Amino acid sequence: MRDFMTTFPTGVAVVTALDLHDRPWGMTCTSLCSVTVEPPTLLVCLRDGGPTLRAVLDRQAFAVNLIRQDSRHTAQLFASGRADRFQHIPWMLDADAARPHLDSAHAHSVADCRVVRADLLHDHWIVYGELIRISADTAAPPLLYGYRRYGHFD
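Now predict its structure.
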């Protein structure tokens, strides 16, 4: 399965949320999919038992930060098991002070979402988020991931 999925290049996102103690959590996620345009809804797949998932479900809100092509280090940091990830990059809270956004030097687009559904399938949760707001910098090319390496559009 892993070998098969590596042949499907995708964009790189960091899903972020605040826990009930206002501590930010986040993880690199390549399982991101548009579900519906009306209402605008997407899904992310998050590992069961992780602190980011717990924060998303507790707050019923999350942000999807699409990572810029020149921010591979951010993708790698949020893919690591480090608990202090947010101490190593600049970030801010969204307008509602509910969802952490990575600094614009790292994310070229951010979608703020409210959870509308979550389903457990084996060891991952499929979390559906209805978009509340999107901010985008279309001039910043996205980071891509496939064949177990990072890349970009030529």
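The longest strand covers residues 107-121.
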